[in-house]
C-alpha cells in the first residue's frame, strides 16, 4: 500500500436504531485504498457493504472512527467522489445530454463549457448518438452508461459503484464491465465497487475485501494477480477460477457461521 493512500478508514463503527434496539452494522472497519486502485467489496447480503459505500460517499454518518480522502476527513458528499447506484437515478424529463449537464451545473462549471463537457463524457461511454434521447427511450445498459458519464463529468478523484450492473442481463453486463475497464485504464480512477457477483469482482479488481456478518467487518483481503488489461475469457482461466473459489469459500464460511449463531 502507498505511503499516502487515496482512502483510509480507521476503526469505523456504524449502528442503526430500530425502536428501542440498536443494531451494529459495521464493527471496527479498517482499510486503505491506493491511488488508481480498483477494489471490490463482497459478502453475504446484510454484511454492510452498501452501508460502507454510502458512508464513503458522505450519504450516511457513523458513530466512531476516522475516514480520510487524500488525508482530509469526509464531511458529507463532495465533488471528489462520484457515485453510481444500481438504479439509474436519471431525471426522466431530461435527455441523456441534459442529465449530464444538470450534474455539471451543480458543480460550478462555467455555463458556456457545460454542453461540450457533457458531450465529451457521453462520447466516453459511447452514447454520443443518443444524446437527445430520454431515459424511457434507452435500454438498461444505456441508462447506466449515462449515469457513469454523469458521475465522471465533474472529474472526481474516486468512483463509488453500488451493484451498478446488477439489474442487467448477462450479455449487457459483460459489455459494461469491459467499458468500465477501458474507462478506468484510460483515466486512472480510484474505484470502490460493491457486487454480489464473485466472478465480476475477480475480473475487475486489484484487491477484493470480503466482509463478514454479525457484525459487518473486513474478514479478508484477497489480491488479484495484476494482469492489465485483462484479456477476454480470463474468467475461465484455471488460476482465476481457483481465486473465485477462494472468495466464494470465504463468503460461505460467514453465511454458515451466521446460521449457527
Give a description of the structure:
- The protein has about 260 residues and is an alpha/beta fold.
- It has a domain at about 1-80 and about 190-260: Rossmann fold, CATH 3.40.50.
- About 35% of the residues lie in helices and about 25% in strands.
- Strand 4 (about 65-70) and strand 5 (about 70-75) form a beta hairpin.
- Helix 2 (about 95-105) crosses helix 3 (about 115-125), helix 3 crosses helix 4 (about 140-155) and helix 6 (about 200-205) crosses helix 7.
- GO terms for molecular function: ATP binding; ATP hydrolysis activity.
- Keywords: ATP-binding, Nucleotide-binding, Transport.
- This is Sulfonate ABC transporter ATP-binding protein.
- Belongs to the ABC transporter superfamily.
Summarize the structure.
The chain has 261 residues and is an alpha/beta fold. It has seven helices and ten strands.
Number of helices: 7
CATH class descriptor name of the domain at 1-78 and 190-261 = Alpha Beta
**Arithmetic mean of pLDDT:** 89
DSSP strand tally: 10
CATH architecture of the domain at 1-78 and 190-261: 3-Layer(aba) Sandwich
SS strand fraction:
15-25%
Secondary structure category? alpha/beta
Pfam families: ABC_tran
Domain ABC transporter: 7-240
Protein name: Sulfonate ABC transporter ATP-binding protein
Keywords: ATP-binding, Nucleotide-binding, Transport
